[in-house]
Amino acid sequence: MLVDLRGLNVSGAEAEVKMRSVGIVANKNMVPFDPNPPRVTSGVRVGVPAVTSRGMGAEDMETIAELIVESLRVQEGSTQQRALAQRVKEFASSFPVPGIDS
């Protein structure tokens, strides 16, 4: 899933770091007609197979989208960021990883 971040005023490179800091893994990625260079980008890519193979559905994708937006808005190193990281961990732990979790 390609997410265009231009409306949020954050680059793909910044978003990748912010998301990872709360436990969401995504890669910076160019979007169509991207004004930013490849090292910066205006978007991120979320691996849908990684999500669906864990049994997440459409409603869960809405939750993931909310968590992504919140991760981009929360202040680095804040109590809110730590709380968000815990929410992400709890959400993800309710979906076992095939072949890893029992």
Structural class per helix/strand content?
A: mainly alpha
Strand residues, percent: 5-15%
- Give the end-to-end Cα distance, rounded to a whole number of Å: 27 Å
The count of strands amounts to: 3
User: Quick one: biggest sheet?
Assistant: 3 strands, antiparallel
Radius of gyration equals 14 Å
The count of helical stretches stands at 4
> Mean pLDDT, nearest integer?
94
Runs with pLDDT <50, length 5+? none
Quick structural overview:
With 102 residues, the protein is mainly α. It is 44% helix and 9% strand. It has a three-stranded antiparallel sheet, with helices on one face.
Which features would summarize this protein structure in a list?
102 residues; mainly alpha; 3-stranded antiparallel beta sheet; 3 strands; 4 helices
How would the blueprint of this fold be written?
Blueprint: E1 2-4, H1 12-20, E2 27-29, E3 43-45, H2 48-52, H3 58-73, H4 79-93
Antiparallel strand pairs: 1-3, 2-3
Description:
- The protein is mainly α.
- The protein is built from four helices and three strands.
- It has a three-stranded antiparallel beta sheet, with helices on one face.
- The longest helix has 16 residues.
- The chain is globular and about 45 Å long.
- It starts with a strand and ends in a 9-residue tail after the last helix.
